[in-house]
Amino acid sequence: ALAVVVLHPLNSMKTISIGILLVVAAVAATAQEYHESFAARLQGGLIYTLYDASFSSTGDVIDCGQLTTGSGLNPVIGATLEFPFSDVTGLGIGISYAGRSGSFTRDNTYPVRDSQGVENTLSTELALDATMTYLELQPDFRWSIIGVNHKRTLGLIIGPRIGLPLSTSFTQMETVTGPD
Hints:
Oligomer: single chain
Shape: elongated
Order of helices and strands: HEEEEEEE
Largest sheet: 7 strands, antiparallel
């Protein structure tokens, strides 16, 4: 920033005094110790979810073989209020909108016989795409490992996450990948 001060002979001492007072006040304000009574933080990112399941049919899922593992990468956005106990510890309460969608896949093979009676193998890929969104509540304990609460570089957050489902659906597809 550039400041231009024009001094008038009668007011120059008054202007210099006010300038000195402003510099002293700015230095004193930055030298004060910083304490937060609470902090509000907006957060966003991506959640990578791994699924470990063991089902072949349930509800509307058609049995096309056992599905065991799946994964998904989804957005999350939330807000958290933090209440510090000290410079490095505190409590937090957060609310977020999180996608927990993912996909399961499985390769299947079936013996088949063509119209001439020749045996062959039919290969298929089963895909089950689950779409799930949640409203999540998270009360937690927060500990700043590197830095302090208001300038945390690395921290540990411990607490439960309570998910309330907002929407759930799935699509199931089986694609013929070819006879061998």
